[in-house]
Amino acid sequence: MSSETELLERIYAEWGRGDYSSGEFLHPEFELTFAPGFLDEGVFTGPAEAWRGWREWLEQWETWNYELVRFFELEDGRIAAILDITGIGKTTGIELSFRSGNLWEIEDGLARRVRLYAHHDDLLRELGLESA
Questions:
Q1: Counting beta carbons within 10 angstroms of the beta carbon of residue 80, is it exposed (0 to 12), middle (13 to 18) or buried (19 or more)?
Q2: What angle do CA 37, 40, 44 make, to 5 degrees?
Q3: Mean pLDDT for the chain overall
Q4: Where do the DSSP E strands lie in the chain?
Q5: Do β-strands 26-34 and 110-117 pair in parallel, antiparallel, or remain unpaired?
Q6: pLDDT at position 42
Q7: Could you give the percent of the chain with pLDDT greater than 70?
Q8: Is residue 132 part of a domain?
Q9: Between the CA atoms of 91, 13, 113 and 98, what dihedral angle is there, to the nearest 10 degrees?
């Protein structure tokens, strides 16, 4: 396992416990992007703005949980993460369950960018890969 995937495992472990307080693993110019097809949209630059964007997303959910399925490292150094998501919408009460994807860039040992995909197939298609 690479140091980059170890970093991401730590991030997902903290976030999985609902702990979004630590920014020590984020690059000062960290960028969070909701990819097309996500229920939200936008690009948030800097740790404070990224947390704001993510907090706004989470506030829409009564519950929001994920299980990390796997990572795969790309030849260009980026890392894709596949996750199983479950959640219950706060206003609708509708329960959702789906497989999602995140695309990470690590720079100088810190998370530099993450692009969030509602559906893992969108991530794989954008990368030119077949469904996993």
A1: buried
A2: 110
A3: 90
A4: 26-34, 42-45, 61-73, 79-89, 95-107, 110-117
A5: parallel
A6: 87
A7: 98
A8: no
A9: -40
Contact 53, 42 (CB under 8 A): yes
Neighbours of 70 (CB within 10 A): 10
CB atoms within 10 A of CB 66: 17
Structure token digits, residue 117: 């995909």
In DSSP terms, 26 is beta-bridged to 111
Domain of 116, CATH number, reads 3.10.450.50
pTM of the complete model: 0.90
Structure tokens belonging to residue 39? 């229920």
Place of tokens 């299980």: 67
Give me the domain span that covers residue 110. 3-127
